[in-house]
Amino acid sequence: MKTYISPLGFETTHIISLIVKHGIEKGDRIILLRPNAPEPRADRAADDIRDLTAKVDRTISVEIAKIDHHDFGAMLLRFMDLISSAATPATSPATHAPAGSKVIVNLSGGPREILIALTAASMALSERVYKTTNWSDIDLELREIELPHITRTLDKTARQILLDLLEHEHTTLTAVARRIGASESTVSRQSAKLAGLRAVKITPDGRKKQIALTLSGKVLLKCTTFLTDARSNG
Asked: Which residue has the higher pLDDT, 229 or 1?
């Protein structure tokens, strides 16, 4: 089974070309990404996609994901969740996604804000994306493109630090060390490495050091969590 994820604007050409090229069949799923704001032309475009898929098989799901385009970080994290849940292996606990679904992401159409965030999410989780496509505005053709695979690993302590920061928004290195049960020197060393990756931000506060999770840190944590879950279910 396949799950297509694509931005949706007023045109459907790139989406129709996508499903014609890669096929659509019983049980497949299409997730269309749209801004929250009401737009009759986008509604008509979504209806056109529904009408087309209904002629193939009525079990094909066409879903509209309404997106708040004002917060890039929130969009990025939400798209990572969409990709991850859609790519859930057959051995994973039940989710809304078909078991073992292949995720095909279309990086074309729709507002630029959504397209950029979806591209970033797809690059962060390239190992969970089966295929990536792009509709050319120059020669009006759909092409399959290859996303770079970004290798990232975290040791146990670094991951514990990020998980702790996810729950404690304003904290210090000393407090993190106490909560995760590690020495302050170990936490300080690992946090310095994470700061080098821009995963955390460390600021002096008198004799203590404040530490906070960044957007890059949240993305890194999601990536490593998804990979850990995939290996556990593999």
From this structure: 1
Distance CA 122, CA 125 (A): 5
Domain residue spans of the chain:
2-145, 156-219
Please state whether 29 falls in left (phi above 0), alpha (psi between -120 and 50) or beta: beta
Residue 64 CA to residue 73 CA, distance in Å, equals: 20
pTM: 0.79
Q: Tell me how far CA of residue 22 lies from CA of 8, 28, 50, 115, in angstroms.
A: 18, 11, 17, 21
CATH topology of domain 2-145: Rossmann fold (3.40.50)
pLDDT digits (tens, 9 = 90+) for 194-203: 998 889 999 9
Contact at 8 Å (CB) between 22 and 104?
yes
- Which option is the CATH number for 156-219: 3.40.50.1390, 1.10.10.10, 3.90.226.10, 3.40.630.30? 1.10.10.10
Is 177 in a helix, a strand, or coil? helix
Closest CA to 49 of 132, 130, 110: 110
| In contact, 221 and 162? CB cutoff 8 Å | yes
Distance of CA 48 to the CA centre of its chain: 26
State the Cα–Cα distance between residues 103 and 123, nearest whole angstrom: 13
Question: What 3-state class would DSSP assign to 126?
Answer: helix
Task: Identify the band that residue 58 occupies on the pLDDT scale cut at 50, 70 and 90.
Answer: very high
**Residues 189, 228: Cα–Cα separation, whole Å:** 24
